[in-house]
Design a protein that fits this description.
The protein has six helices and twelve strands. With about 300 residues, the chain is α+β, with helices and mostly antiparallel strands. The chain has two domains: about 5-40 and about 250-300; about 60-245, no CATH class. It has a five-stranded mixed beta sheet with strand order 3-7-4-12-10. Mean pLDDT is about 80; it is low at about 15-40 and about 255-285.
């Protein structure tokens, strides 16, 4: 039987050592990667996102769009025209309900819960105003529960991300000089404690910008303004009341840590270090070990 030359044998051992170290790195990195992925999806949501594509040209609920692509409008059964028609004023008052992950929902998990937004005398003629009342679940109480695509962006649509997210009333016909007023939103009913009024987003006098995050953009009622006045150059206005499920529902990782603390009387941390926390033996440490081993074995060939 033939025997391997010593140098060939040494090189084989070097290759084997490298393979073993790479395998060890894989055993360290793979669990860390999985853990990171699990953490990103650990948010528990009480209600899954409601996904309704925005109507496209030719659809029953597609209304109109600007030729320059600056805006798009959808049919809204809560869109009303004042009679008598006093002027060119127009506007919207909307609500958007978000789950813990910031995704639009219709309130299927909060039945018998109502949001009310007081409106002023200028809108007392509107059948859905004075006050604006929103009952959940939207799908059980309204034709077209969501009628507007107010947030996000997409290359495929003029405004929004191509999915409906808001419930609105719309109005046309107030005179220039008229003031639109709204009060602070209140939440009543069986699950009122589960919904927070995050704030208000008011825009008047210019087009609505959808490239915003509703939670980040929402401000207090006082800062939002509580209404607007129509002027010749500012004949449109709108406000969105941002609502979100209460933050009592924590991510799974935090809940698990809290449970561990209560059960063991500790801070919920594991005494054994995780792969990416192991002192002196992370990915860099593994590479150093490989280089040191290869150098040692090569030195024996000299």
């Amino acid at each position: 039987m033939s025997q391997l030359h010593p140098r060939v044998w040494d090189r084989s051992r070097v290759g084997l050592a490298v393979l073993l170290c790479l395998s060890l790195i894989g055993s360290i990195v793979a669990p860390a990667t999985v853990a990171a992925q699990d953490a990103s999806s650990a948010m528990n949501v009480t209600e899954e996102a409601y996904t309704e594509p925005a109507p496209e040209p030719g659809d029953e609920y597609f209304e109109a769009a600007a030729e320059d692509g600056s805006w798009v409008s959808y049919v809204n059964p809560r869109d009303e025209y004042r009679d008598p028609y006093l002027g060119d004023g127009s506007g919207k008052i909307c609500t958007v309900l978000l789950n813990e992950a910031g995704e639009p929902i219709v309130g299927e998990t909060v039945p018998n819960t109502t949001v009310r937004v007081p409106t002023g005398e200028t809108l007392e003629w509107h059948s859905s105003a004075d006050p604006m009342t929103v009952e959940y679940p939207l799908t059980e109480h309204y034709d077209r529960p969501l009628d507007a695509d107010q947030f996000g962006t997409s290359d495929d649509v003029a405004q929004g991300d191509g999915y409906m997210d808001s419930h609105c009333i719309e109005f046309h016909g107030p005179a220039i000089g008229d003031e639109i007023e709204y009060g602070e939103a209140t939440v009543d009913g069986e699950y009122a404690d589960e919904i927070d009024v995050v704030g208000y987003i008011q825009r008047d006098g210019y087009a609505w910008e959808t490239d915003i995050d509703p939670v980040d953009a929402a401000t207090s009622y006082e800062e939002a303004g509580g209404g607007w006045t129509y002027r010749e150059s500012e004949s449109h206005g709108q406000v969105v009341v941002v609502l979100q499920f209460a933050s009592a529902n924590q991510p799974e990782t935090e809940t698990a840590a809290a449970t561990d603390t209560n059960a063991n009387g500790t801070d919920g941390t594991d005494s054994s270090a995780t792969a990416d926390e192991a002192p002196g033996f992370g990915l860099v440490g593994s590479l150093v070990a490989i280089l040191s081993l290869v150098a040692a074995l090569l030195g024996r060939q000299q």
